TrEMBL record:
It comes from the Bacteria. The chain crosses the membrane at residues 205-228, 272-294, 341-362, 440-464. It comes from Legionella waltersii. Keywords: Membrane, Transmembrane, Transmembrane helix. This is Coiled-coil protein. The keyword Transmembrane helix applies. The keyword Membrane applies.
Length: 515
């Protein structure tokens, strides 16, 4: 069992031994493990805050762990993570102060002298630059996604327009333009949209290159500063940075290369069919990278679960065991959500591969439309992956509360189940709406604009209205349901083993949990 796990056990058992000095260079130091431990305990804290006392072992250990992580991110400075921890630290401080046991807590916990942790002055000078670099990377990612989305939408609309022209359907729609005194042909719009394509290919290479360079620069900065700081291990920092940035940097390198070949290929005399095979190869590499990233994240979850199982074996109090079991519940739910998220992205990548491979061996206007639509679907799946993740989260929440009902089926459980069902339905609706809009609506607008811009304008206004209405209806539900999310991990009984009791044995959690 790790040193931090033994320390956690001491907090629960009120062992009077002094808190050992923990080093960031120790072999057993594992930032991902500590982060998962903290996140699960903090969620339990929020779920049961009204029933906890400030001298509870979980609260004391959570406070210590928060200080420890703050100290780390002050040393290996990451503004976003540090600011999030400081906000959570303030929440813990408010809770402890409201319980009016600050003096007792100071005596029990030597590290509490620094409870009001703030970023070091030596780090302050870097805040502006690295917050800005984080925003730049987010903007670059947004530009890359929008550029890809536009390219797939334009390709689909081009195939549809060509097919409509072949069957003569466009001629019947030209009368609408004549009513408005407009005279332009679909060929003119298609030619207009084709003009920026060369620049967009070059822009793709530039965007991927910039994001790759920024990530490489930040990774190098962290590793070099770690090597110069005796409090850090450059080897551990390097592993953390590789796990954090390897997927994004790999995809940037691959797709930046593809865009470079697509832009300069004709000038270098590279055969178009060879370029198509290169694109197909990197699409398959993208699938492999998803599996690698999934494996890394799954290994981190499993390592944390195994450590919690060791903690549970060593636990001597029923409360400690109940909390550890709830931590495992949280991790299992998160693991299930992430598993579905990766499977969804892998499915999107497979749609790309199949559509692109088929386009190399088949032809025909309707076939090309179908393959372009499949590629558009794959891109739309990528763009709605976060909505799908929220949908899977709502399913996991409902499943967890259903299991809670086997412990205590009270009125609160019934109300919560109703709310979670409503939220799941809302998340499902939002996901499918966004997927449908991302799949075909932009291509539909481009196609409509090729034959009649009044129709395209009407469709655009309808889209904006639906999008605005959808956001207005979703946002209040998000904010109102947030506490209910947390309450699905409430503790029922200090003596609970999380096994379904007989109905006459089921009891609710007392107003305060003490040891």
């Amino acid at each position: 069992m790790l040193k931090t796990s033994s320390l956690k056990h001491n907090f629960f058992n009120r062992t009077n031994s002094s808190i050992p000095e923990l080093s960031f260079t120790e072999e057993e130091f594992n930032l991902s493990l500590l982060s998962l431990e903290f996140s699960t305990l903090y969620e339990l804290f929020l779920s049961n805050k009204e029933r906890l006392q400030a001298n509870n072992g979980m609260v004391l250990y959570l406070n210590f762990l928060c200080n420890y992580l703050i100290s780390y991110y002050q040393t290996d400075y990451v503004a976003e993570n540090l600011n999030q921890l400081l906000m959570k630290k303030n929440e813990l401080d408010r809770f402890i102060e409201e319980q009016s046991i600050q003096n007792k807590r100071n005596k029990r916990e030597p590290l509490e002298a620094n409870c009001k942790a703030q970023p070091k002055k030596s780090s302050d000078e870097f805040i502006h630059s690295f917050v800005s670099s984080s925003k730049i990377r987010k903007h670059l990612s947004s530009f890359i996604s929008n550029r890809s989305y536009w390219n797939y939408s334009r390709a689909l609309s081009n195939h549809v327009i060509n097919y409509l022209q072949k069957i003569g359907a466009v001629d019947s729609l030209k009368e609408i333009n004549e009513l408005f005194g407009l005279n332009y042909s679909p060929e003119e719009l298609t030619a207009l949209l084709d003009k920026p394509q060369i620049a967009l290919r070059l822009l793709g290479f530039i965007l991927y290159g910039l994001r790759f360079a920024l990530n490489l620069l930040i990774m190098t900065k962290h590793v070099v500063l770690a090597a110069l700081n005796p409090k850090l291990s450059s080897k551990k920092v390097l592993v953390q940075e590789v796990e954090k940035r390897s997927y994004t940097m790999s995809t940037d390198l691959f797709w930046g290369t593809v865009n470079l070949f697509n832009f300069f290929g004709p000038h270098w005399g590279i055969d178009a069919f060879l370029l198509a095979k290169v694109n197909l190869f990197f699409l398959m590499i993208d699938i492999a990278l998803f599996f690698v990233l999934w494996h890394i994240e799954n290994s981190q979850y499993q390592f944390c679960v195994n450590e919690l199982l060791l903690q549970k074996h060593e636990a001597t109090s029923s409360l400690e065991r109940a909390i550890i079991e709830r931590q495992i519940d949280i991790l299992n739910d998160q693991k299930e959500i992430q598993q579905n998220y990766y499977l969804f992205n892998i499915a999107a990548a497979n749609v790309f591969v199949l559509a692109f491979a088929a386009s190399l061996i088949v032809s025909g206007p309707l076939t090309l439309i179908g393959l372009a639509a499949a590629s558009m679907l794959g891109n739309a799946m990528y763009n709605t992956a976060e909505e799908y993740k929220q949908y899977r989260r709502s399913i996991a929440d409902l499943k967890r509360e259903t299991l809670n009902g086997t412990l205590v089926a009270d009125d609160y459980h019934d109300v919560l189940m109703q709310n979670l069902r409503v939220e799941q339905a809302a998340a499902q609706t939002k996901f499918w709406k966004n997927l449908m809009f991302n799949t075909g609506f932009t291509a539909l607008i481009i196609t409509a604009a090729a034959v009649s811009w009044p129709i395209a304008l009407s469709l655009t206004l309808v889209y904006i209205g639906c999008k605005t209405n959808n956001e207005d209806r979703w946002q209040p539900k998000q904010s109102e349901s947030k506490p209910e999310h947390l309450n699905i991990y409430r503790l029922f009984n200090a003596n609970s083993t999380n096994k379904p009791p007989r109905a006459e044995e089921a009891v609710s959690l007392p107003l305060s949990i003490t040891e």
